[in-house]
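Hey L., structure's done. Input below.
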Amino acid sequence: MFSTVIYFLVALIIYATSDLFDGGDTGMTAGWLESLVLSIGFFLICRLSFQRIQSALDKPGGILSDRAVSTAISRLSILALMVFAVNIYVYRLNTLFSHVRVFQMIPTLEALLFLGLFVSYLVMIWYAAYPVEKEWFSRPVTRRQYIVSQLSFSLPALLPWLCLSLSVDLIGLIPCPPLKQALSHPAGEIATIVMFMAGIAVFGPVFIKRVWQCRPLEKGYARSRIEAVCDLAGLRYADILIWDLFAGTMMTAGVMGLVGKFRYILVTPALLRSLDEEELAAVILHEIGHVRHRHMLWYLMFFAGFVACNILWYEPLMFLILLAVSLLPVSFSPDIMVSRLHSVLMGATFISLFIVYFRFVFGFFMRNFERQADLYLYRFFPNAFPLIRTFYKIAAVSRQDMERPNWHHFSIGQRIRFLEKCQENRALITQHHRRIRRMIAVAVIGLASVCIMGYQLMYGPLKPGFDNFIAGRLVFEQLNMDPENVDLQVAAGDYHYAVKDFTKAITFYETAVYLAPDHVHALNNLAWLLATCPQTDLQDPERSLDLAGRAVALAPQSPFVLDTYAEALFLNHRTADAVAAAQKALELAQDRKSYYQGQVRRFQAYL
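Output:
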């Protein structure tokens, strides 16, 4: 079920990156009809997949394999993401309601609407899987209970996004430009995300327990035993709750909440029915181990760090992917193909980064954190037999393959064998705790380094060099395809000017002026360089004045052109004319007033 959480988050990323595909030409009616046909086809595939599994089960000697069922659900869930992506990226269904006023004001509502489309695909999978899945449950579970349990378990994963996104939408409606500007800056975005993540981590359990329809565990032997274990471990909590997951047939427990006042311990009825006193204590100690080792806090940090990295690296990645796309040979409709390919690669990159990070990095920590929580038992028990017996019971009741791999847990067999090794050699416990500390240190340093590098590329001293590198490569690639493009020749000259290769800059500006004698930017930039070049041997005052004069004749109301003309006049010892041109530039300027004022004062000083 944890995989479903990732599917939900990937669907959210697919929707969030839909703006990359603006400009699609699919019509509304065609989009709806094709999407409907695609959805019907997906449902039929789901039915056929589980009918085949059921047919194999009905044959003489047929054995129901949990691995076959889970594999089918995983593959169909991935197919559901692909179908959803086609609906959003190709059929552009998300544009059908873009004209609705409420969606324009609060875009999160539109996002919820289309995430509901993805939910419908998951419901199709669960609906088709139910006849096979119900065989696993120890007690009768209706199809509705099965689907609702699947949904209720996964939907809280969207809570951070929902709260943050709604808050940003509502803040956007407030007529306060300084607040909007502060929040639009990456530092403001990251601070807002961290604040909301912390708030949700603290207060979210109150909401989640309602979504999961948990109820307080009634007074009795089970509750008193759990309370005694919590008292022994010194754990603060708000309540002990019954978690009726899949009508109470799942053998599991959990703990949620960073703060004791809003922390809840969850146990399912099947767990209480199946375990003896020692086994129940062992399970609760495992959950307390998560709290004592601050696993939830680290999960929060890893998630917030990933979001911060995405914010800071969005533009650099966008430019790097654009550069990579521009290097590919495109034989037809290059502008359309490059734009479309760039959008595809951008969406694929962010989805891939998310999957890799959570499936492998986050999953790696989850597996090792679960093992560390298992080891917490040794602080109160002389051996791990109660927890080992619990694992055997879980495997027996759920008819689960004990060696079945799991991305967020080690297999039951692996967990049992590790506990047995630690029982024989207690030094392994200390080694594992030390290993966890090293892992966390590496992760923190890695996330911090990636964030710092992204910030440097976006706002720090690396930005000019990075921008020039990307701009130069893009310009030269385009020049190879269109060498007579004057704007590209000017851009190439600007690039060489920025990197202080003035000889090449003059060459490109000269080429631009040759191709288009009346191109204002080419005339102006070449005139400025010939007047102010730090390499005095490249200066040419007379040519500079001629070029600047031609540029002023073409754009007499342009402040920066007048500024270049004033500089050329001053260099040719026509100081009074330079002051007049500089004053006119100052009058016309809408920004950089202080610069133009400085130019006027500089020239006046020589009168």
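Residues 23-30 have pLDDT under 50 and may be disordered. The two ends are 81 Å apart (CA to CA).

-- N.
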